[in-house]
């Protein structure tokens, strides 16, 4: 029987990233450290196209700045999608971390199906430390962040090869031509744009570890 690791936002922040920063033992050794600035998403360790979780310590200026800026990764770039959202612990009614969605773009600007949730702790999450914090241990560098890497389903309009899509577009264009010069029937078409929106769910975390 397999084990599937899929923590909530609060669990990832409080039970894993917080403990990593404070130098506490982790509940399970299931989140490796990865250099996100050096590797493309499919080159990172993990199970095929499934979800992957990593700790990362920003080593380049574009990763250290964070925010809505782009982050170089291998021969591509991660670009922010939407605004950063706060992760709130319901019992104390205060935000303990923040989450931002990023999408990976290939060199040349082509959008990929890979996306990432980037997590960072807020000061409220590290004060006070967990009750079983080992005072003799040295805390990890405070720049540690966490991320969840995943692959989105390919939209239907992007599944066909470019050559087939171009031929289909030409056929549709020919079909739209008037059947005779005397035709005065005009067809109005409305193409609704696609808009992707990432939302953060504020799952309940009863209290700090």
TrEMBL record:
Primary localization: nucleus
Start and end residues of each stretch annotated as Disordered: 125-209
Biased composition annotated in UniProt, kind: Basic residues: 149-162
Domain NAC: 1-152
Composition skew (Low complexity), residue ranges: 200-209
InterPro entries (alphabetical): NAC-dom, NAC_dom_sf
MF GO annotations: DNA binding
Record keyword Iron-sulfur present: no
One term under GO cellular component: nucleus
One GO term of the biological process aspect: regulation of DNA-templated transcription
Subcellular locations according to the entry: Nucleus
Transmembrane segments: none
Keywords: DNA-binding, Nucleus, Transcription, Transcription regulation
PANTHER family: NAC DOMAIN-CONTAINING PROTEIN 82-RELATED
Entry protein name: NAC domain-containing protein
């Amino acid at each position: 029987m397999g084990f599937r690791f899929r923590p909530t936002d609060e669990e990832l922040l409080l039970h894993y990233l917080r403990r990593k920063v404070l130098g506490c033992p982790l509940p399970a050794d299931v989140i490796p450290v990865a250099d996100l600035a050096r590797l493309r998403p499919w080159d990172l360790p993990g199970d095929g196209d499934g979800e992957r979780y990593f700790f990362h310590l920003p080593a380049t200026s574009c990763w250290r700045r964070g925010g809505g800026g782009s982050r170089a990764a291998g021969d591509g770039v991660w670009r922010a999608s939407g605004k950063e959202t706060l992760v709130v612990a319901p019992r104390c009614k205060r935000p303990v971390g923040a989450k931002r969605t990023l999408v990976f773009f290939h060199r040349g600007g082509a959008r990929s199906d890979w996306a990432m949730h980037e997590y960072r702790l807020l000061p409220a999450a590290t004060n006070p430390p967990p009750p079983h914090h080992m005072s003799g241990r040295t805390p990890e560098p405070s720049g540690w962040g966490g991320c969840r890497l995943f692959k989105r389903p390919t939209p239907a309009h992007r599944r066909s090869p470019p050559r087939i899509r171009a031929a289909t577009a030409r056929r549709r264009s020919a079909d739209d031509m008037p059947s005779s010069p005397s035709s005065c029937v005009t067809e109005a078409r409305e193409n609704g744009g696609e808009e992707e929106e990432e939302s953060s769910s504020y799952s309940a975390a009863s209290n700090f570890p």
